[in-house]
């Protein structure tokens, strides 16, 4: 249009070309050209002319090896308001000088300058197309261009402009993915000579394609942006180094000045590590070399508005070599994983346990003196994937973690040894071994060859004196195992010392220990050799010793009152103590009843013995019950499966421990009365300490006894004896009497309720 107008003004003849006349006229009338351009030409067209002229000049300079073409020409290639964009960008970066902010602001400016309908930043780690993530696009979606286009930009570090309707020889398999976007421009974002990201911009159908001048505008912004990215990287590195230095000073202070515990140090390490790499969660697992496992009690740290540490009272344990952390602990390899669920090494059980979804992982070993003592695992970086910079900072951090953990472990060992020493003094002040006089008296009295009725499930332990119970316990051992592989004198000393190591508390005393051993003896005796010799040894001795040195208080009471035992054993407190007391007695001179076993047999019996004694912790019963019930319901139980055998051993221990609930009514009532005496004693102690005891432990609320027994027999005893009967049918007597006692307690409880309602 404007060309025709100029031709008319110039009075061109038909035989003349418009170009010749127009050029002659404009050269002769520069004022007219200036006025015409300013009044008639669109600003966008002017910009395109200037870009094209700049590019021609740039090519001429390149041919002459003259690289003095500068950004001064670029200022004419943008609208006046783009200068304000840069001013706003500079102000924003002064407040938040991070690499992500630079990239985001640059992309926003370029998108606006070239009139794009949308954009997204594609972060590519180490020029690897398989490790990409979309960052902060104004429409979060997948790639618009094909991977071939992205790969080309990565390889050539050149901009690419493609349109849906145009074929491009560089991309014979197509340059687009299906979608509404019709024109795409991809530009590399380079910082310090390395590819930082790819900016992908798009326009929808109906709009003009991206032109060469759009590409020039984008590249002009990116020239400045590269400088900004460089300084953002410097700022980030300096800030990270400062944080790292501050933490290392804190670590040194913790080691040589504060001497904090391992748990407190683990919290410090995890909180800092999470901030160091901008992770959402942090876990630290320590190596248990004895059991070839990784474990953690503080396994998950997250930061909200304030620092928050989530800890669990239950240990998380899993074998070395399992999951990402297990593999790192085994190989010492640093693992940086961009998609956890697509990695076959990832163990999903922790996610299932915590209800948390893991996406990205950075996992690193912690060394001390050349050996791996732990693994730190960062989960879900807030923006994109964990980078090489994260890995480098984390690696230095891990070195000091090893030093700190090593000293903290030494400190914990010292504290634990101190607590053990206090417990030992306490035990020694109360207990001692059987003396020579007691041993000779028992030896002189002899052991009967036959005791009638001792193998009856309904045997009454209250009819025997303490010395007679010891004699019966020795008899039951000999009846089950003989004396071919066992020393009689050691057996007598062991049994008499076990009797002495039961405290004189109302319920958890020698009578209870003997009664549980008697019930286990009866189960083994009538079970047709389903248990091996070593299993039977562990079950019987475990039953006899399962409550050694019991103080008449629950595990919770021990934890609440911060007893020395609770400081040593945080879980199954009393049960661990009972096992250790058993081992202590075995180690005394003349008491080792297992001395004639081979070293392999001895280790197996001790392992089984610990398993059996710990199984008497009712807190463990419910998990054992659920697991065994599921196996039986699916008809998968096998006596050849070691895990299945351990489960039935645990259930047999619980059944023996609770055997008073399956004794005749007279024995049951007497036992319940004794149990509540012990409960009330604990309740009195809790009141003295300013705590409110449970109703069943409050001697002023005796009417709760029948109801508590109904709940106890219904929820624990009956399911226990049902499982036992399913696998050992000979124990039916226990199940029957348990149900009979439950019926009687229900009747009493119903009468109490009726009287209460009648008032």
Automatic annotation (TrEMBL):
Entry-linked CDD domains: HDc (cd00077)
Segments traversing the membrane: none
Organism superkingdom: Eukaryota
Cofactor descriptive note: Binds 2 divalent metal cations per subunit. Site 1 may preferentially bind zinc ions, while site 2 has a preference for magnesium and/or manganese ions.
Keywords recorded for this protein, A-Z: cGMP, Hydrolase, Metal-binding
EC number: 3.1.4.-
All copies of domain PDEase, residue ranges: 431-752
Cofactor: a divalent metal cation
InterPro entries attached to this UniProt entry: GAF (IPR003018), GAF-like_dom_sf (IPR029016), HD/PDEase_dom (IPR003607), PDEase (IPR023088), PDEase_catalytic_dom (IPR002073), PDEase_catalytic_dom_sf (IPR036971), PDEase_CS (IPR023174)
Family statement: Belongs to the cyclic nucleotide phosphodiesterase family.
Name assigned to this protein: Phosphodiesterase
Upper taxonomic lineage: Eukaryota, Metazoa, Ecdysozoa, Arthropoda, Hexapoda
Name of the gene this protein is made from: LOC108561502
């Amino acid at each position: 249009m404007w060309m025709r107008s100029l031709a008319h003004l110039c009075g061109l003849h038909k035989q003349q070309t418009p170009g010749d006349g127009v050029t002659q006229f404009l050269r002769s009338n520069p004022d007219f050209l200036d006025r015409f351009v300013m009044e008639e030409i669109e600003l966008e067209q002017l910009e395109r002319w200037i870009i094209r002229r700049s590019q021609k000049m740039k090519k001429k300079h390149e041919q002459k090896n003259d690289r003095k073409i500068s950004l001064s020409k670029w200022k004419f290639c943008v609208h006046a308001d783009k200068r304000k964009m840069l001013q706003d960008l500079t102000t924003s970066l002064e407040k938040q000088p991070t690499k992500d902010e630079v990239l985001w602001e640059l992309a926003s400016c370029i998108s606006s300058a070239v009139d794009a309908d949308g954009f997204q930043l594609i972060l590519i780690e180490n020029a690897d197309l398989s490790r990409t993530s979309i960052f902060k696009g104004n429409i979060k979606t997948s790639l618009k261009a094909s991977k071939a286009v992205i790969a080309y930009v990565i390889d050539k570090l050149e901009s690419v402009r493609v349109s849906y309707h145009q074929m491009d020889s560089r991309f014979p398999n197509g340059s687009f993915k299906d979608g509404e976007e019709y024109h795409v421009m991809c530009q590399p974002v380079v910082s310090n000579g390395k590819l930082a990201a790819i900016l992908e911009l798009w326009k929808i159908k109906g709009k003009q394609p991206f032109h060469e001048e759009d590409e020039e505008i984008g590249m002009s912004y990116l020239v400045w942006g590269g400088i900004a990215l460089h300084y953002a990287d410097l700022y980030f590195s300096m800030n990270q180094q400062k944080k790292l230095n501050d933490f290392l000073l804190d670590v040194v202070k913790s080691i040589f000045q504060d001497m904090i515990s391992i748990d407190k140090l683990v919290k410090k390490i995890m909180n800092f590590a999470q901030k160091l790499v901008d992770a959402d969660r942090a876990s630290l697992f320590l190596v248990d070399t004895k059991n070839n496992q990784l474990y953690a009690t503080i396994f998950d740290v997250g930061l909200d508005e304030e620092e928050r540490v989530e800890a669990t009272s239950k240990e998380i344990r899993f074998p070395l070599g399992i999951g990402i952390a297990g593999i790192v602990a085994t190989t010492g390899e640093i693992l940086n994983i961009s998609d956890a669920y697509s990695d076959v090494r990832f163990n999903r059980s922790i996610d299932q346990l915590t209800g948390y979804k893991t996406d990205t992982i950075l996992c690193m070993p912690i060394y001390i003196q050349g050996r791996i003592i732990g693994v730190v695992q960062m989960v879900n970086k807030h923006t994109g994937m964990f980078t090489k910079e994260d890995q480098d900072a984390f690696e230095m951090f891990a070195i000091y973690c090893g030093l700190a953990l090593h000293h903290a472990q030494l400190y914990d060992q010292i504290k634990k040894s101190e607590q053990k020493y206090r417990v030992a003094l306490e035990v020694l002040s109360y207990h001692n071994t059987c003396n020579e006089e007691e041993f000779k008296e028992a030896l002189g009295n002899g052991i009967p060859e036959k005791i009638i009725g001792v193998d009856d499930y309904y045997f009454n332990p209250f009819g025997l004196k303490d010395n007679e119970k010891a004699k019966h316990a020795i008899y039951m051992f000999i009846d089950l195992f003989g004396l071919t592989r066992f020393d009689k004198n050691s057996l007598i000393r062991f049994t008499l010392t076990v009797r002495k190591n039961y405290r004189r508390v109302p319920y958890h005393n020698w009578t209870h220990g003997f009664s549980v051993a008697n019930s286990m003896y009866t189960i083994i005796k009538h079970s047709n050799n389903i248990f091996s010799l070593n299993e039977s040894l562990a079950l019987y001795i475990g039953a006899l010793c399962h409550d050694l040195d019991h103080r008449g208080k629950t595990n919770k009471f021990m934890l609440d009152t911060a007893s020395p035992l609770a400081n040593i054993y945080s879980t199954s407190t009393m049960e661990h103590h009972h096992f250790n007391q058993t081992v202590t007695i075995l180690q005394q001179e003349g008491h080792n009843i297992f001395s004639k076993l081979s070293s392999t047999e001895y280790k197996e019996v001790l392992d089984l013995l610990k398993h059996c004694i710990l199984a008497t912790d009712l807190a463990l019963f419910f998990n054992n019950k659920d697991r065994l019930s599921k196996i039986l319901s699916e008809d998968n139980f096998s006596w050849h499966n070691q895990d299945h055998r351990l489960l039935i051993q645990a259930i047999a221990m619980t059944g023996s421990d609770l055997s008073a609930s399956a004794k005749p009514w007279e024995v049951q009532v007497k036992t319940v009365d004794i149990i509540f005496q012990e409960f009330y004693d604990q309740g009195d102690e809790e009141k003295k300490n300013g705590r409110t005891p449970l109703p069943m432990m409050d001697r002023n609320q005796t009417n709760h006894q029948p109801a508590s027994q109904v709940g106890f027999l219904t929820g624990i005893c009956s399911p226990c004896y049902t499982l036992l009967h399913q696998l050992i049918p000979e124990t039916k007597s226990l199940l029957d009497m348990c149900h009979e006692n439950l019926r009687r307690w229900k009747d009493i409880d119903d009468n109490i309720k009726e009287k209460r309602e009648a008032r």
